[in-house]
Amino acid sequence: MCGIIAYIGRKDCKDILINGLKRLEYRGYDSAGIGILESKNTKDAKGIKIKVAKEAGKIKMLEDMIGRSEMKGCTGIGHTRWATHGEPTKVNAHPHLDCKQEIAVVHNGIIENYAEIKEELIEKGHKFVSDTDTEVLPHLLEEYDEGDLQIAMSRLLARIKGSGAIVAISTKYPDQIIAGRIASPLIVGISKDANFFASDMPAVLEHTRDFLVINDYETVRITREKVQIFNISGEIVKRDPFRASWNIESAEKGGYEDFMLKEIFEQPYGAKETMRGRLGNGKLDFSELDLSDKQINQLKKIEIIACGTSYHAAVIGKQVIEKWAGIPVEVDFSSEYRYRDPVVMDNCLFIAITQSGETIDTLAAIREAKSRGAKIIAITNVVGSSVARESDYVLYTHAGPEIGVCATKTFTAQIMIMYMLGLFLAKKRKSLEKARFSEIASELEIMPNKISDILDNADKLKKIADQTYRQTCFLFLGRIFGFPVALEGALKLKEISYIHAEGYPAGEMKHGPIALTDKKTVVVSIIPKDFIYEKMLSNITEVKARKAIIFSLASKKDKKIEELSDHIFYIPETIEELYGILAIIPIQLYSYYIAKNLDRNVDQPRNLAKSVTVE
Ligand code: G6P
Question: In degrees rounded to 5, what are phi and psi of residue 538?
Fold first, then answer.
């Protein structure tokens, strides 16, 4: 939540900051601002001023506004906001300034003790203009600055409670930008002529692919030529940069109308990349886990925690691990787990799923589990993310950068990992017959082709969406392997269309949701030809009798389903445990086309953010 960019180099940075913010807009989009150190002669500190431009609304509004003003300078910071404290107004937008207008700060996070700090600062004579928690930060730096802004930032980190990626510029130190970090994401981008801070790699991929991670309570000074990282005691820390495999093209729309559509169509590639080096020619390799056969065989339980869409991948993981490997699996929302005094037993493996690797609740749940002695496996799409760094093992999904706020390709990549992990554990525990193992492995290997077959029929889903988008209630029903798909389907639709939708196990429908059904309801039934097909048919008959419109995602033509359904989309046949990954693709497209019919912004739905770094 909230996106930060900072640049120091030889070029005028206004456009670099604006373009970077556009690439971070998925992190927050209610207001934005930039601050640039402006001077005709940069060697003369006295002539330097901070010029700030901010605007409520999308970055385009800021860009239009700046277009009318002169802003020149080679050192600057920018911010796109997802409001926490204070409404999304121009005055609350970042950067925020100190009393003398010498220091400008952008911040992503929440200062929990800001009220007490603010009171103290007001007593000392500081003047505040916004309702934000962030505004205490430039004033604190003003108080703490005794000739070195990095030391002042270090004192600031010690003073605040909560979370923050904080970046500051000052007219007194025009040749540097200082940052500090507690819990919120922030990386350094390094290039020959310039250095950057950013919340996420896509913001600066057009300038560099070389990055440095920053750990909690570290402060960083960047100049045009140098990057210095300091630990909490003020000592310089040596750290090697890493090179991102992502490139700028992967963070562009590439001819698609929206990132979401592009990312839906990238799923065959994402699934293939996630398998690369792990599964091929019937062989499964998860050596990256470094777990001994003994450890795997002694496992008594697996605990998976996640939020949002990742939680639905966790439910799929539970189903296949239990079925194939015979290990009991508990799935929890991270936000519940972290506060519910969980029992961490011996021989329990702990898995955290998070596409961003930065979700604050998942991070906190990991810390909670670790403090109780658990070993953590992270499944994430972002190399060097906080969750990746704080876990014992990392299984990266290789879906490429996902810019659309709602998760699509990262979800299917997570499912691929869960399928492979289930198979891997089963193999080690010898709980699956060899022939069955080979059958599932081969089916997984051709999954990208089956996903492509569905995408080739996107126009059929568009037609169904065109005919149903005016309905006011959507019920997604599935059983067993269709159930997590129902949950994710309802989430997808409500996220981007703002239509009321619920995902339910079809067998539970009679215990409540059936009361919602009438002719304004669409029931999306996930009904592949599996062992529970007949039961699903009965459930659909029941809602059909209440006049709901039935849209079935089936796998095999038969008379009964054709008679019952108003609309049908056929997904390719597969092994019943694997229907989930195929059934979600048409639902993503269907939700997309409904939202487009309603003229929604699918890439940046209202009130949402791609990575939730505040509680
Ligand atoms: C936000 C995003 C969702 C995502 C959830 C969990 O709400 O909008 O798309 O599923 O966070 O994010 P994570 O990065 O932990 O998977």
Answer: -65, -40
